[in-house]
Specification:
Helix 1 crosses helix 3 and helix 2 packs across helix 3. Strands 1, 2, 3, 4 and 5 form a five-stranded antiparallel sheet that branches. The protein is α+β, with helices and mostly antiparallel strands.
């Protein structure tokens, strides 16, 4: 099956919910800003589908680090950030660095990742196909 980025993006956006965001920040999640706190699990799902590298940068407010932000860099250097719009005008993200993919076993956001991945796979008609399609 050939995956199209626009189809994947639409599937990811339809799949976000309070139950897929970072648990300690669930109170910040809303349907008005559905990308909020979805970056880590979203980057992992995009990595499952397209490979490439995981990127991470610091989120700053008034010069102080407040969080970390995750996105993807595909082969050829193309960066994809499906959750960038979560940030308000007072928040800035530093330049990213490539990091090794953390193992799913024992991961802090394992449940949220598995919920998002399952929904995205269902949206894309990949249900039951848990191997990386790339």
């Amino acid at each position: 099956m050939t995956l199209v980025l626009s189809d994947v993006e639409a599937a990811v956006r339809r799949s976000w919910g309070a139950d897929t965001c970072t648990p300690e920040f669930r109170e910040r999640w809303s349907t008005e800003n559905p990308a909020r706190e979805q970056c880590g699990v979203t980057a992992m799902v995009v990595n499952d589908l397209f490979g490439g590298e995981l990127m991470v940068g610091e989120v700053h407010v008034d010069g102080a680090r407040t969080d970390m932000h995750w996105w993807n860099r595909l082969a050829g250097g193309i960066e994809i950030d499906l959750t960038r719009e979560q940030f308000g005008p007072a928040e800035s993200v530093t330049e990213g660095v490539a990091v090794s993919r953390p193992p799913v076993e024992g991961a802090r956001l394992r449940e949220e990742y598995e919920v998002l991945r399952g929904r995205v796979w269902a949206e894309l008609g990949l249900a039951g196909e848990w191997e990386k399609p790339w």
